[in-house]
Fold this protein.
Amino acid sequence: MKSLRLNGMRADDPVLRLVAVLVQLRIRHDRPARDQIAQTTLIISSSWRARVRTAVEQNNTQLEQQASVLAADFGLREALASNDRGTILSVLANHATRVGARR
């Protein structure tokens, strides 16, 4: 199903919904509209919290997977055991490049 778009925004975008409710308030100036804004704001807030929570959980999962790969790296384990600073830094730099890490 193709979603309706307005200047690149999807019709079900929470921000677009809030703008529509604000327009309604401006036109009607009545209590039910203000109540609707309060309710929509709560819904949007809840939606954004859920999105942020999901993004954080996905990020944590990805970090755990990357840490597992790093911990299993034989070259790194050998370099750590022999305290080979140059190899340790090289392995860490290679892993950082591979996963797109930034400073």
